[in-house]
Amino acid sequence: MANILVIDDEPGIRSVLRDIFEDESYNVFDAGDGIRGLEMLESEIIHLVVLDVWLPNIGGIDVLKKIKEDYPEIEVIIISGHANIDLAVKAVKLGAFDFLEKPLSLDKILTLARNATAMNALKTENKKLKSSVISEETMIGESEPIRLIKQTINQSAGSDAKILITGDNGTGKELVARDIHRKSQRNTKPFIEVNCAAIPDTLIESELFGHEKGAFTGALSQRRGKFESADGGTLFLDEVADMSLSAQAKVLRVIQEMRFERVGSEETRKVDVRIIAATNKDIHQEIADGNFREDLYFRLNVVPIHVPPLSDRRGDIPLLIEYFIQEMHKTENITASEFSPEAIDMLIDYSWPGNVRELKNFIERVTIMSEEDVISVETASKFLGSSEEKQEKIINPLIEKFSDMKLSEARDEFERMLLLQKLEENEYNITRAAQSLGIYPSNLHGKIKKFDIEIKK
Known about the structure:
The chain has helices spanning 11-23, 34-43, 60-70, 85-93, 106-134, 144-156, 173-182, 201-209, 226-229, 245-257, 283-288, 294-300, 317-331, 341-349, 355-369, 377-384, 388-391, 397-402, 407-425, 430-437, 441-450, and strands spanning 3-7, 27-31, 48-52, 75-80, 98-101, 163-166, 191-195, 234-238, 259-261, 268-270, 274-279, 303-306, 338-339, 374-375. By secondary structure, it is of the alpha/beta class. It folds into four domains: 3-130, 3-Layer(aba) Sandwich (Rossmann fold); 156-306, Rossmann fold (3-Layer(aba) Sandwich); 310-391, Helicase, Ruva Protein, domain 3 (Orthogonal Bundle); 397-450, Arc Repressor Mutant, subunit A (Orthogonal Bundle), CATH 1.10.10. The strands form four sheets. Strands 2-1-3-4-5 form a five-stranded parallel beta sheet, sandwiched between helices. A five-stranded parallel beta sheet has the order 7-8-11-6-12. Helix 20 crosses helix 21 (441-450).
């Protein structure tokens, strides 16, 4: 049944509404003021809010505005003991489902609650349908690698087996994950994505498991994590090999037990989530280097799927080009409808270091900028680059040295290299080396100790 949140500063009203709603099998939450009510919306899934107009700290109309701004799918029934026509009209214009005057008619509030929760369910279903239409893309291609991937997706989608997707950036790992979810029995429930590489180590646990108010500096309210948001559905852990070892240990426990605690809480919460993970790293090398837990790998790698680079399935390039042009015609007013045979041949021969993502971006760019009905090899070459060498990344040798390191590791390694260079230039004279670095000798001594640098006499 639906979850209802009652926000009213009168304990008696909250108690009465809780009783009548629970008698109808609703799950009921309540708050004595608007601030607490808004906090609960961040931590719980709510389908209907029954909101008093006159509240301490923040008025009901302002709370209504905030709800409709942040949670437009949630219906709000306004109640007030000081009702007037102008206030009712204002509330409805702001998006309220209806307006009731105290003392409340219990029959009417129940009728409105049934109608409002039904409307919420309709909105939610409509949103899911739109989302499924938008993400209806599937793997385009007829090559042997793509045929095997599609076969694996079809065989595994109906189960709850964990899946580990590997492949370079831009190959379509997320597309595979969404296709699995769409074909699973969980397709009416959320598909929640977490980019583990984009979240700082200090925040990854809060992002995954949620946190309580005051759990750490900046935790101004409760927050649900991605595991809770994905309950009943699929959680996609993208770039999973970029998680810290401590976060990996906690994720392993949750995967094993399907229960966890929010950061700052001792209350255990249960979830039912299917896990799909992906990485662009050599996971076996990461395990060998001590960067990824082998036991977590075995938990995730129940069904392995490797997505090959575009250069390993060049025969699919014409199909992808045709598909992306058709998609552009749906959304953009473009002239081009196809590429010349010579242009197609050139694109097939190109290395595509950015894989399918690079190809898609190229098609969008050239079809928007070109005025040709049939894009010539000259035009394609102009927007792609006249030679493969022009398109390949030219990496500075110094940057290349740090390319596989995390930022903190690269910063420390660069600092160590610079210190060694300055010490050698100044014949290991601490005072002169410190002056050339623009720091105090005492600071240099500290860094020498930190990086275990040997001082040559």
